[in-house]
Amino acid sequence: MSEFDPFKVFLELQLGLPRNGPGSRAATEAAFAMLPALPEKPEIADLGCGQGASTFELLRLTKGRVTAVDLFEPFLEKLGERAEEEGIGEERLVIMRGDMTALSFRDASFDLIWSEGAIYLLGFEHGLETWARFVKKDGFVAVSECTWLTATPSDEARVFWEEAYPSMGTIASNCEAAVRAGFEIVGTHVLTDEDWRAAYYSPMQARIAEMRETWGEEVEGVLSEAEAEIALFENNPGQYSYVFYVLRRKD
Ligand SMILES: C[S@@+](CC[C@H](N)C(=O)[O-])C[C@H]1O[C@@H](n2cnc3c(N)ncnc32)[C@H](O)[C@@H]1O
After folding, report:
1. Is the pLDDT reported for residue 1 higher than 50?
2. I need a surface site. Which of 56, 163, 229, 230 has the fewest CB within 10 A?
3. How far lies 8's CA from each of 120, 196, 218, 219, in Å?
4. Distance 246 CA to ligand 1 centre (A)
5. Was domain 20-194+226-249 assigned CATH 3.40.50.300?
6. Protein residues with CB under 6 Å of any ligand 1 atom
7. Per-residue pLDDT tens digits for 195-218
């Protein structure tokens, strides 16, 4: 039955997508534009980089070196293939298989830590506390995090997120958490609905149809769960979104 292990099916679904979470070039650029100053060649870490959607944007936006970290080899292999196609060498890109909950970088290694759609795996505040020491003094952290945009969500959205991510905050509560974790707020940026659809949910719908056709009944559980998440988003506009938090280390 191992070929239909739900995690493997989920991975197979994700590997066929251009991104592994909501986001876009425009959203990455908007968050990046908030950074007041970076060295000419910044040291950057992209934590939970997946197949590298943001990694390649950061390489385009800076002259720095990006260390792209993810736990799952198949994502990193895809990232490596793209780097090779684009002729990006080791002086600009370090691909590292690693656990972002237990990183072994030296303190103050980076001018900027970037992470799109992945800090929730540690929890927002705990993630910031854990990563703070890897950022240089006055360096930056930019993370995107699923966030409530309303204080009065529908029952459907509330029940789903209470189960999926009970500690999901609001922009205000996340900003307070960031300050407690030792950062000041440079700015926030809310992802648009198109940032969820264009490179994530729309290709995911196409991939679900394809997998349903070729893989059959055994993978139905994972596929219907993914469909339910898309339906929740479409049925509850404006109630929640990913939000970028651009932060400066204070001490
Ligand atoms: C929602 S995806 C976001 C991926 C990517 N940043 C993007 O926006 O396309 C979360 C990523 O975190 C990675 N991940 C999960 N647990 C991890 C861990 N403990 N350490 C490092 N990466 C992890 C997953 O493999 C996945 O690539």
Report:
1. no
2. 163
3. 21, 23, 12, 10
4. 19
5. no
6. 19-21, 23, 48-50, 53-54, 69-72, 75, 99-101, 116-118, 121
7. 999 999 999 999 999 999 998 888
